[in-house]
Amino acid sequence: MPYRFLFKNKYFVWMLLGLVIQQASVGLSNYYLAQAATALTAGQNARMALAIFFALLLFPYVPGVLSLIELKKWYLSLRKNLVSDAAAKLFAKASLWSDQKARHERTALLVSESQIVLNDACHFCYETCSTVLNYSVNLVAMYYILHPSVAMAFLLGMGLAGLVSKIGQNEIARLAVQMEHQKSQVSSSLYGFWDNVVLGNTPHRDLWNRSFDVSISGLNQSTMRHERSSKGMSLLLMSISALPMLSVLAYRLFIAEASQTEMMVAAAMLPRMLQMINSSHVMFSLVTEFTSLESRLGAIFARLFAAEGGELGTRITFDKIDVEGGEDIAGGQKNIGEFLRGLAQQKSGYLTLRGANGSGKSSLLLLMKEYFADRAVLLPSQSSLLLAGDYPAEFSSGELQLARLQDLLKHRGNICLLDEWDANLDPINRRRCEEIVAQASKDQLIIDIRHSK
């Protein structure tokens, strides 16, 4: 689990501080409740202790609400940081750009899956911190206010349950990873919904339906296997953790003949102890959930930042690509490395890549983008590249491509890589763009692939 990413965050610290204040108030309420019980048993005035007890019952809501606000801020901060980290790590990974599987998977991760897992992680941490602090406060209260043996018995039960939990952790982790993989399959299937359904082609609709049915069925089955395993384990652990404490408490009250004061205090604290038994179910749900969440979050980071996509050079048949206007650069050796080194010496000019479909012209442009990094800017044939200015919403695809081309050519000194930039242009706009590109080539190097011959 990326602990540094999660916890090196100011909002997490503020959330934790609010929980500490909240649970400290709960602990003090236990103390004053016991004081009131002792006073009543001795026939003394218990009004002050009861007044403080009731005040402390109300006060924890204030830091509790504030910690929930910080929890939301924490989640929103993590969501922003994850996208920023992804943008930094995937920047200029041009080999991934044309990989449709990688595009769909990473987009699905950023749009939905990572947000769900991050939200689960934040709430898990909140519940864990709150439960652990509550346990600690109540254990101290049982040790000093009720009897040390009751607290020690509860710790013993928690230890035994912890040992048993180790048995099922690997299986729960395996089911969690399987569930995340199935979620990714469903997300990838949903990305094909629009083209395969909205166009109204029955064969494509039927193919998509079959694909979606298989993926959603797999997700439902893996989700239920994970749910049954985790809930069954938490119920078993709750029973194991409660048994020693209840046994010791029953012994002291009914066999060892505890004093009237001790019985009064035990009666006053009984709701707290029952709450702890109930909370042990929450605690061990969190223990089993931790294994699942760790696997899910680790899988998200591994898949989001995986260095896949393959070598661009393997997709290019360079001897089948002609470089129009760059014969002196390409030379007779037809070597990609020498060609790129030759391009690096060029300050301006206009080169056009021509070749049969499948020869790797677009991959060669992507390779140039990786090679020249910030020196080069690439305009693909179809993309969602943002425009620097405001453009009318009714712009056609050709007009948008023209606007993107004009934006790109404003940056003097860059190597401009244009992939079928004229594909959606009418003859008038194509001539306009040809004039713009020809003029720009006097000051910068233009390398393009033409859709029109």
Strand order of the largest sheet: 1-2-5-4-3
What Rg, in angstroms, do the CA atoms define? 33 Å
- What's the level 1 CATH class of the largest domain? Mainly Alpha
Globally, the shape reads elongated
Proportion of helical residues: over 70%
Helix and strand composition category: mainly alpha
Task: State the end-to-end distance.
Answer: 53 Å
Strand count: 5
Counted up, domains total 2
Q: How would a crystallographer describe the biggest sheet? A: 5 strands, mixed
Condensed summary:
With 453 residues, the chain is mainly alpha-helical.
Give your account of this protein's structure.
The protein is mainly alpha-helical and 453 residues long. The chain folds into two domains: 3-304, ABC transporter transmembrane region fold; 312-449, 3-Layer(aba) Sandwich (Rossmann fold), CATH 3.40.50. Helices cover 73% and strands 6% of the residues. The chain is built from 15 helices and five strands. The chain has helices at 3-7, 10-41, 47-58, 61-90, 94-97, 100-146, 148-191, 193-198, 202-255, 260-304, 327-330, 336-343, 361-372, 397-409, 427-440, and strands at 321-324, 349-355, 376-379, 415-419, 445-449. Helix 2 (10-41) packs antiparallel against helix 10 (260-304) and helix 9 packs antiparallel against helix 10. The protein is elongated and about 105 Å long. The two termini are 53 Å apart.
